[in-house]
Design goal:
With about 220 residues, the protein is an alpha/beta fold. It has helices at about 55-65, 85-100, 115-120, 125-130, 145-150, 160-175, 190-200, and strands spanning about 10, 15-20, 40, 45, 70-75, 110-115, 135-140, 180-185, 205-210. The chain has a single domain (about 10-210), classed as Alpha-Beta Barrel (TIM Barrel), CATH 3.20.20. The chain has seven helices and nine strands. The strands form two sheets. Strands 1-2-5-6-7-8-9 form a seven-stranded mixed sheet, covered by helices on one side. Helix 1 packs parallel to helix 2 (about 85-100).
Amino acid sequence: MNAKTAKIVYRFGNGVYINLTNRCPNLCTFCIKTKWNLDFHGNNLNLAQGEPTAAQVVAALAQELSRAPFKEVVFCGYGEPTMRLDVLLFVAQTLKGWMAQAKYPPFPVRLNTNGLGNRINQKDIVPLLRPVIDVVNVSVNTASQEEWRRIMRPAAGYEDGFESVWNFLRSCVEAGFEKVVASCVEGVVKDPQAVKEKAEKLGATFYLRSFLDEDN
């Protein structure tokens, strides 16, 4: 593949990642997509030439999953996957169908999200995600509304998204996903312990992730 061609599907660690969009209602202070010029460890994730169709994603997955072993498939690129909910659901359903046909050994399907999917789609998307997503990782980042606005830098119309994010996390826990994770970034949030306590009180697993920079 030409190095300049955007990757629809890429590898990282033991996972196969799906790059659906570069669009996001947040412009987080810690986001590396601008700093890294939409590159991720040698993978060009710049979708300026157009977002992939569901058929293109499925074709790219079929090719990638036939290669080296993997442990999970993750919806995560340099954008918010729920911005393209219909494509996400179609692809996730396809993955579940492949597993039902024993095309691949069972593997979890994970969604990494900023938790604003309900606001983005103007409806409760949790019941739609539940049949096809196993693990939901919500980047809650802070237990403070003021801090959320400062570090997440939401676009117009999303300024009050803090409560939406935590309500989404709560709904995911109540829906009974295999695992629901609330994450925040180390060194960015003033009080990660407060995030941990709030997340665990709701029944979610807390994850303090490392801040990415050019050295890792």
